[in-house]
Design a protein that fits this description.
Mean pLDDT: 85
Shape: extended
CATH topology: Thiol Ester Dehydrase, Chain A
CATH class: Alpha Beta
Number of helices: 7
Largest sheet: 5 strands, antiparallel
Helix content: 25-40%
Low-confidence stretches: none
Biased composition (Polar residues): 186-197
Protein name: Acyl-coenzyme A thioesterase 9, mitochondrial
Number of domains: 1
Strand content: 15-25%
Order of helices and strands: HHEEHHEEEEEHHH
GO cellular component, one term: mitochondrion
CATH superfamily: Hotdog Thioesterase
Domain HotDog ACOT-type: 53-184
Region (Disordered): 182-205
């Protein structure tokens, strides 16, 4: 069975269009530049035709195997893949997929949606398989799609894998949150709504909504907005006391001169 799955993956990968992350970055730059020339207009969300998850779904290669000259950009001093560089590519891919959702299956580069500027707001989660090491000499396959859409925010789900010894090996999964703004950046602008086509997609949307509610709750509980309650203050005080050397503090107090000793006679 495992051998059959490996052969299927090899066949699928051979038929995938060899679109690289560099191509994505260049096309994305062209797409965003074209949006700057479109007139700003108000958008009625109710008149926007919903798009499916498959319309944003895409796969891209980081060609470490087929283009050896780029390996130096991705290898660290130990010879493994630089995680920071992968984060950059994940960020680019998340923005790409977000625009693809609003584009609705049309080719990227020439906008078919209202003017917007999409930026990454947060990395909601990243899961790395600790028992696997990503090869710096094999192509990395990036796959992803938009998995939840709010009014101006989107959740993008992505996966990274490689073909090692003829078999697909999954290394990483991530969810990024992106937000859509007017090209000026001053105000938010609505996304094209998301339409589900299966119970599996409905479950993804449900989880995306639950994750948004959790983010809102954590933001409301942030110390930047809400002071610690009585229990939290006691915990903080206990942490502080554990960092204090009581004996040293007592010695310091014992060595302090009395005020009367500083008076002129």
């Amino acid at each position: 069975m495992a051998s059959l799955l490996c052969k299927v993956f090899q066949r699928l990968q051979s038929t995938v269009q060899s679109k690289t992350i560099r191509h994505v970055s260049e096309t994305l730059e062209k797409h965003v530049a074209a949006l700057q020339n479109l007139p700003i207009r108000s958008v009625d969300v109710t008149k926007l035709k919903a798009h499916t998850m498959n319309e944003s779904r895409d796969s891209v290669l980081i060609p470490l195997g087929s283009e050896p000259k780029i390996r130096l950009q991705y290898k660290n001093f130990t010879g493994l893949v630089r995680f920071g560089k992968l984060l950059e590519d994940l960020d680019t891919f998340a923005i790409w997929l977000s625009y693809r959702h609003n584009q609705g299956g049309e080719a990227m580069g020439t906008p078919r949606h209202h003017p917007m500027m999409i930026v990454t707001a947060a990395v909601d989660e990243i899961h790395i398989k600790a028992d696997r090491e990503m090869s710096s000499t094999s192509d990395i396959l990036m796959e992803g799609h938009v998995s939840w859409v709010g009014r101006s925010s989107l959740e993008v789900s992505m996966h990274l894998s490689q073909q090692l010894q003829g078999c697909r090996v999954d290394f990483l999964s991530a969810k990024f949150i992106t937000v859509s703004r007017e090209p000026s950046g001053e105000r938010s602008t609505p996304n094209v709504p998301l339409k589900t086509t299966s119970t599996e997609e409905e479950e993804m949307v449900r989880k995306g909504l639950a994750a948004r509610e959790l983010r809102k709750l954590n933001e409301e509980r942030s110390l930047l907005r809400t002071p610690p309650d009585e229990e939290e203050r006691h915990i903080l005080h206990d942490f502080f006391l554990k960092t204090v050397d009581r004996e040293l503090v007592n010695q310091m107090h014992a060595s302090f001169p009395y005020l009367k000793c500083s008076l002129f006679q």
